[in-house]
Amino acid sequence: MTGSEALYERGRRLMPGGVNSxxxxxxxxxxxxxFVSRGEGARIWDEDGRSYLDFLGxxxxxxxxxxxxxxxxxxxxxxxxxxxxGAPTAREVELAELISRAIPSVEMVRLxxxxxxxxxxxxxxxxxxxxxxxxxxxEGCYHGHADSLLVKAGSGGATFSIPDSxxxxxxxASLTLTLPFNDLAAVRRTLETRDGKIAAVIVEPVAGNMGxxxxxxxxxxxxxxxxxxxxxxLIFDEVITGFRxxxxxxxxxxxxxxxxxxLGKIIGGGLPVGAYGGRRDLMEHVAPLGKVYQAGTLxxxxxxxxAGLATLRALADPTVYRRLEAMGAKLQAGVEAxxxxxxVLLTVNRVGSMLTPFFAAGPVTDFESAKRSNTSRYAKFFQxxxxxxxxxxxxxxxxxxxxxxxxxxxIDSAGAAAREVFRAL
Length: 425
Ligand SMILES: *Cc1c(COP(=O)(O)O)cnc(C)c1O
Hints:
- It is built from 14 helices and 16 strands.
- The protein has a seven-stranded mixed sheet, sandwiched between helices. Strands 1-2-3-15 form a four-stranded mixed sheet. Strands 13-14-16 form a three-stranded antiparallel sheet, covered by helices on one side.
- The longest helix has 25 residues.
- About 2% of the residues have low confidence.
- It binds pyridoxal-5'-phosphate (PLP).
- Pyridoxal-5'-phosphate binds next to helix 4.
């Protein structure tokens, strides 16, 4: 049995929802997922031979596009020398050096196998290093699915911390305080009322998981000043933004240095990866140097590290980020013009090559305003684009990614598809 429909039927019998990660099931936009047979450059092909212009980019890692030659060649050569050793290799040192040079606040780094692990471990380190238990996160920010981070506030704001998932003990969730993104006053109040209790503030410096929401002017610097004043650590979750909004991530883009940084996605070149790093005195708490335990059988995997190095080396050229900015701006302009022509209410948020079209008047500055978007309109937009061979994220609350493989013609054809779709909305 081949073809997406048949595979979906077979898969659903054995895998929850027929998928290995929930958003892939298209629950937010309806319909059934297509199964991918291959990708090349800016396009993917499904099991029925249809092709799509891809603006999902595997949810962020594929900044060079699909199967880029430097990565394919490097991994092809590396795999013949063995897939895993459980002992260190030269390329792990090279990747650590490259990351630390690109992101100077990362004085030491530990590679792990997913962004979830990176954020979970950074939180453990923050708790271990400060001797404090509570953390602050922001509503709508996603930091992977570790228990402490699967929490957002209910209507009680910071006083009630309700887990987003069954199975997260409320005792643990109560240590995660959730505040509105971009609300510095709320952070100040919470740090004051819980003075000496907060281990860390963790934030996506550009939110990508409620749709793209940039930090308002002064927000990140304000977090830097407040955390320093109260002895809490500042953690930037740059799993999406690292090497995406700038080579040095959002921290170089906005000029604010956190104590700890989480990385993932791009640094693995499309293979499973995560990393956390930061101040040397903090990272020295990590085992075997210190008493914060964290380990991984496949951490620093030779294939992952090879793919990551090939990817990051291809990005080490300032013209790359100028091109990503120009192409992102072009996609935004195309979609906005199409909406204007058709009289569709649309607010596009964008930082460089990551953007989200919200079906709302805007501005979209936090999760509350993001949720005002008309999600059934987004679902129609998604389906309309897909029917015209353009693949956007299957949820309003995600980012679209432009890669270096997208051509001007690709961006034009996405704009033309949007024009048709908006006219029919
Ligand atoms: C994707 C993502 C994660 C989780 O990474 P996984 O590799 O999916 O575990 C964490 N934080 C942010 C900001 C992400 O976008």
